[in-house]
Amino acid sequence: MMLSLARRWPQRPMLRFWRDGAWHSTSWAEYALAVAAVAAGLRARGVSPGDRVLLVSENRPEFIIADTAVMAIGAVSVPTYTTNTAADHAHILRDSGARVAVVSTAKLARAVRDAAGPDGLDVLVQMEPGDGVGWAELLATPADLPMLVAEVDHIPPGRLACLIYTSGTGGTPKGVMLPHRAMLANRHGIAGFIEKLNMPEGSCYLSFLPLSHAYEHTVGNFLLPSFGLEVVYSRGAEKLAAELQSIRPAMVTAVPRLFEVLRARILAGLEKEKPLARKLFDRALALGLRRMDGPKLGLLERLEDAVLDRLVRNKTRERFGGKVAALVSGGARLDPGLSGFFIALGLPVIQGYGQTEAGPVISVNLPWDNRRHTVGRLLDGVEARIAGDGEVLVRGALVMDGYWNNPDATAQALVELPDGGDPWLHTGDVGEIHDGYLRITDRKRDIIKTLGGDMVSPARIEGMLMAEPEIAQAVVAGDGRPGIAALLVPADGMQDKVAEAVKRVNARLSSIERIRFSKVMPPFTAEDGLLTPTMKIKRRAVLTAHAAVLDSLYR
């Protein structure tokens, strides 16, 4: 797919990246020639079909070039996070059996080399100048692009393309085996959605999530470029607000935490405005929510709403560049109140759902058909059903082949049912399907059973807590305990107002769900092992790390 597109669009910009104080661009033709050279260079150094190749890099052109080159020669790409600990690198190297690594920096080269232990690596490629095989050496390898194109035409759809190690919210990462067909099934599934967005030629996608994340690896690395969008690699969270305005992307994907931060910035900026501006903003928000949730606006309200669209919502849209066709949230539950805030202000925030084991996209809402209390309709080609215990089961060409070297975990995740056909993927999520829309209500294994025998959804309560502007992070506990407790990280400058936020949330909860005990905590971070690289809270890790705090709350 990718190399044939390079033939069709040789001069079209494919990638944009920041280097040496300026933006640079890579065309499709340059990408394809680099893929051919790197593929030839890896082959010359003994990389063979089936070999696993570790890829550790920030978002940059060399990532997708190396990734494509590895797959093109029949080897298996193993993308992993630059933020991984030494233990993480050691586990993935040992579990995957990778003897070749491609890394971006000297620091990462040292980390991977140390993690490989006494047996070492057969080949270590470094993108930036340093030890080992230099990236420039690979690019200088004589290559035959037409021959490589002819060769990849014969890659069977079922061939293993990559191993994506689940960062997960607990437990040892497992290597998810994704064949070519799984990622291509995702492309087929979102094709209608992309076409209906009708984005003009020259539109771009701002790539913010790590390319080693399953979502960004499939969607940002291959699928969106394949529809003609130029991929612009963000310089990081601190530059994102400025990049939205300067780059003016048509699409952005992010995790819910980013939307929480952006909302907090908008509200903080509003505090500095004059009373009239604040009043107009509040009215635009209220009418926008009415348009979504009812009751219907009257004639005068519709006229008022149209005026506020120009006075308020246009300014908000401009903060995001003014060309956004879709802001897609994934990776964790997006609180309907949070998405409603942006939608009411004229921004097309939509929630999707998936997991690494499913290509990874399973369903997505649409800007013109956005049911924000759900995760949207299933992609074309995806089949789903709800098991007797409420678990969401999924099957189709997007589903993984299993977990690498882990038949027991594979047997638990992929289960044959009496109806025959392909195995069903047990997602571990509890949900329901109404009118074709999938709604996720909880994680199956995270349900809390209190001492009184009551069953409580922690995801629901945590989502409500983090929807309050005073609370940045929340984890609730109570399994086998006499009530629900919450560990709460305040938003900046809001430490003294957390109790008020808890009181507001409790007023909307049933008696068995109400928070009886709470404790203000320092931030949960990736460095402490309490967040995944995509900023998802590792619930079980937090509960384990702060077990003593929780014990003290119940005394």
TrEMBL record:
It comes from the Bacteria. Keywords: ATP-binding, Ligase, Nucleotide-binding. CDD domains: VL_LC_FACS_like (cd05907). Pfam families: AMP-binding, AMP-binding_C_3. GO terms for molecular function: ligase activity. It catalyses: a long-chain fatty acid + ATP + CoA = a long-chain fatty acyl-CoA + AMP + diphosphate. Residues 6-404 form the AMP-dependent synthetase/ligase domain. PANTHER family: AMP-BINDING DOMAIN-CONTAINING PROTEIN-RELATED, LONG-CHAIN-FATTY-ACID--COA LIGASE. This is Long-chain fatty acid--CoA ligase. It comes from Roseomonas haemaphysalidis.
